[in-house]
Amino acid sequence: VTPFAIYAFTAVLLFTLGLHRLVTDANLLRKVLSVNVMGGGIFLLLVATAYRNRSPLPDAVPHAMVLTGIVVAVSMTGFSLILVRRLEAETGKVVLDEIEEDS
Amino acid sequence: VSGVPGVSGLVLLEAWPGPGALASLAVLLPVAAALGTFVVPSRRGLLSAGVFAGATWLVTLGIAIQVASQGVQRYALGGWQAPLGIDLYVDGLAAVMLVVTASVAVIVSAYAAAYFPHHDPAQGRGFWPAWLLLWAGMNALYVSADLFNLYVSLEVIGITAVALVVLGGRRAAMVAGLRYLLAAFAGSLAYLLGVALLYADLGTLDLYDASLTAGPAAAVAGGLVTAGLLLKTGLFPLHFWLPSAHSIAPGPVSPVLSGLVVNTSFYLVVRLWLQTDSPPDEVWGAQILGLLAVIAIFWGGFGALRQRRLKLLIAYSTVSQLGYMFLLFPLAAEAAGRPHAWAGALYHAGAHALAKAALFLAAANILRSHGSDRLTELRGTAENLPLTAFAFGAAAVSLVGLPPSGGFVAKWYLVQAGLRSGQWWIAVLVLAGGLLTAAYLGRAGRFFFVRLKSPLAGSYEPLPRVTEWATLLLALAALAAGVVAAWPLELLAVGSPFGPLPTE
To answer: Does A90 sit within 8 Å of B200, measured CB to CB?
Structure first.
C-alpha cells in the first residue's frame, strides 16, 4: 500500500461520509457542515496528488486548485449560513422538514 | 505589441481581433456591467449596464461569424500554455450557446428594467449584479477548455442563480433556494472530485484531452463528473430541487434559470462524453442516460399535467424538456444518424431556451397583472393581456414542436436520428412527448380564452408596455428559429465530432 493510496482512500471516505450525512440529515446546519466534509476530502486528494506526481518537486497545479477550491467553498458556506440564519430568524427552526410543515 | 511581454493590459490588443479577444470580452463585459450596477445602483448604472449587455450580444454575434468563417478557435489566455494556463476554446456549439444565451439575456434584461421599477424597486437592486454575474459565468463556461476553470464557472453560476431565487425573501423562496444551493454545491463537489481523479490519473486538465475511457480510474471519474452535472441540470431522478426553485423565483429570474442555466451543465456533459477522445459507441452509460431521458420526458410531462399553478406547470415542463436533450447520448451510440442526433438535441437546447423563457415571462405578466397564477383563475387573460396570451401560444407552438418553429426543427432531426440509427422507439417517444407537451400547455392555455363574465374572476392591472412586448419578441424568436434554421445548423456542425449533416 503506497502512501498515496492511503490518502486517496481517506479522501474518498470523507467525501462519502459527507454525502451520506448531507442526504440523511434534515438539520440545515449539519447539511452545510457535511458539504464541507465532502470538500475536505477532495482537497486532501488534490494535495496528495501534488506530492505523488513523479518529480521531486511537488506539482503546483493541484495546489492552485486547492487554493481556489477553498475560496469557492468558503463563499458557498458563508452564503448558505446566511440563508440558514435568515430562515432561523424567521421560523425559529433549522430543520428543513419542520420549516416546510409550518408554511 | 508582441515585443512588450508581461503587460497584461496589452494581451487583449495583442490578440485583437483573434479568438482570445472576443471570447474574453464575452466574459469581461458582463462582469464589468455587474460591478457597475453594484457600485452605481441608480438609473445611470442601469443604463450603462444596458449598453454593456448590448455590446455582449454583438460580441457573441462576432464570435459566431468568426467561427463560421474561420472554423474552431483556440487561444491560450495571456500566452500561458497548459497546464498552468487556461485555454479558451470556441467551436460552433459554443458559439450557438453564446448567441442564444445573449439573445435571451438582452430581452430579459430589457424586461427586468421595466419590471422591477414598476413592481418592486428594492428587489431590482439585488437583481442586476447577481444576474449579470450569472451571465458572465455562463459565458465563461461556454468558452473554457480547462476542467478546473469550468468548475469555477459552475460555482459562479450556482451561487448567483441561488441568490436570484431568494431575491423575493419569502420563507418559501429561501427554503427552495437552500435546497437548490445544497444540491448545486454537492453537484459541483462531485464534479470536482471527478476532475481531481482525472488529473491524478491522466495528468491533464484539458477538457479536450481528457478521456473517460482510459481505464477504471477515468471511468469512476467520469461517473462522478456526470452525476454531479446531472444533479446540477436536474435530469430525472435528480430534479427534486428544480420545480420549486424555478417557479418561486421572481418574474425575470425564472426564464433565465429554466431557459439558460439548465443548458450549461448539459453542455458540459456533451463535451465530456462526446467530444473527448472516448469513442461514443464504447461509452457504457449512453443507454442509462437514454433511459433517464425517456423517464424524464414523461415524469416531467405528467407532473406538469397535475399542477394547479402556471409557473409550477412551466417548471415541470423543464424537467420534461431536459429529457429531449439527453436523448443525444443513446442516439449518438449508433454510427448512423449521428449528425442528425447532434443537430436535433442541440437545436432543441437553443429552441427550448427561447420558448421556455417566453413562457415564463408570460406567466410573470399574468401573475403581476392578475395577482394569481392559479390555472382556474386565468379566465379573461386573452381579453385583458392579448399580447401575453398570444406570446404564450406562439411559445407553446415551438415547445410542442409544430411547424414552423425552432422546436419543430429540433424534433424533426431527433426523429430522423432515431429512424436512421434503427432506434425507432426513440422517434415514437419524441412524438408521444410532443402530444404530452400539447396536453399540459393546452390545459393552461384554454383558460385564457374563457371570456370574463362574472365579477368573481378578478381584475387585471395594466402592465408596463415593455414587459408584454419583450415576452412577445422572445416567443417570435422561438418561432423564427424554425424559419432561419439553416445558418445555426451549419454553425453547430463546425467542430462537431460527427461532422456536418449529409446533404440529400
So the answer is: no
Model confidence at B2, in pLDDT bands (50, 70, 90)?
Answer: very low
B83 prior amide bond cis, ω within 30: yes
B237 CB-near residues (< 8 Å, 6+ apart): B292, B295
Hey, of A16, A34, A83, A101, which one would you mutate to test binding to chain B, going by the most B CBs within 10 A of its CB?
A: A83
Q: What is the DSSP string of B172-207?
A: HHHHHHHHHHHHHHHHHHHHHHHHHHHHHHH---BT
Chain B residues touching A103 at Cβ < 8 A: 171-172, 175
Measured between beta carbons, the chain A residues lying within 8 angstroms of B172 are: 103
Say whether B152 and A65 touch across the interface (CB within 8 A): no
- The complex scores an ipTM of 0.94
Strand partners, B279: none
Q: Tens digits of per-residue pLDDT, B275-311?
A: 876 555 556 688 899 999 999 999 999 999 999 999 9
Among residues B258, B254, B249, which one has the least CA distance to residue B174?
A: B249
Q: ω before B462 within 30° of 0 (cis)?
A: no
Q: What is the C-alpha to C-alpha distance for residues B159 and B468, in angstroms, rounded to an integer?
A: 29
**CB-based contact B179 A96, cutoff 8 Å:** yes
Tell which residue, B329, B224, B345, B343, has the closest CA to residue B287: B329
pTM above 0.90, yes or no: yes
Question: Cβ(B357)–Cβ(B406) under 8 Å?
Answer: no
